[in-house]
Amino acid sequence: MSTPFYVSPQQAMADRAEYARKGIARGRSLVVLQYADGIVFVGENPSRALHKFSEIYDRIGFAAAGKYNEYENLRIGGVRYADLRGYTYDRDDVTARGLANVYAQTLGTIFSSAAEKPYEVELVVAEVGETPEGDQIYRLPHDGSIVDEHGSVAVGGNAEQISSYLDQRHQDGMSLAEALKLAVQSLSREPNGGEREIPAERLEVAVLDRTRPQQRKFKRIVGRQLARLLEAGGATTATEAEESAEDEE
């Protein structure tokens, strides 16, 4: 009988982490930024059907980079958790912090289990507050840890370089148009220091807009609204963009 091959626990966990990081790095990056009236999600996504950003609950949004089937399973689980908790207790009891804890437990359990491979995903859970001080942004890497972010966060293939770029340029109180332009500029940067152009039709953009009168604050920015915001002198809030688009219809 042959002796089983031994791998130290530290080496096994390091190998699993490297495997997950390489899988995440193959995906396109995305950024989440605070602006004056809420939180904006921006990513390069040529697909109109497979979304990187989604609504979880009234004031909570979800963003993910990595393998689509894996983070879609997590998104669906988060929606079920939020619906059940809101129905059983109260809608105000559904929070980004609670949802992040649920995701952290799931990712941590999968990452430490020797029976299955780690998920190749990195998540962002964001909640818009009544004021900018009440906004919450949590980043969840593949191992299930929780990072409380402020201002801006980037995940995906080129996240470190993009995060550094955003940290130097992001400011509190930016308009939606300013935040969107900064996000696109950061995503346009290549690892070698060059820049490329990302056309509007390849962008996926969504916001959690605290100024919306509806209880649900999540909204996708597409078509003429997105083009207007990308242009100089365009509408500065999602609400204004929505109203302008409705006026033209």
Automatic annotation (TrEMBL):
It comes from Streptomyces siamensis. The keyword Cytoplasm applies. It is found in: Cytoplasm. Pfam families: Proteasome. The 20S proteasome core is composed of 14 alpha and 14 beta subunits that assemble into four stacked heptameric rings, resulting in a barrel-shaped structure. The two inner rings, each composed of seven catalytic beta subunits, are sandwiched by two outer rings, each composed of seven alpha subunits. The catalytic chamber with the active sites is on the inside of the barrel. Has a gated structure, the ends of the cylinder being occluded by the N-termini of the alpha-subunits. Is capped by the proteasome-associated ATPase, ARC. GO terms for cellular component: proteasome complex. InterPro entries: Ntn_hydrolases_N, Proteasome_alpha, Proteasome_alpha-type, Proteasome_asu_bac, Proteasome_sua/b. Component of the proteasome core, a large protease complex with broad specificity involved in protein degradation. CDD domains: proteasome_protease_HslV (cd01906). Keywords: Cytoplasm, Proteasome. This is Proteasome subunit alpha. Belongs to the peptidase T1A family. The formation of the proteasomal ATPase ARC-20S proteasome complex, likely via the docking of the C-termini of ARC into the intersubunit pockets in the alpha-rings, may trigger opening of the gate for substrate entry. Interconversion between the open-gate and close-gate conformations leads to a dynamic regulation of the 20S proteasome proteolysis activity. Signal peptide: none annotated. Pathway: Protein degradation; proteasomal Pup-dependent pathway.
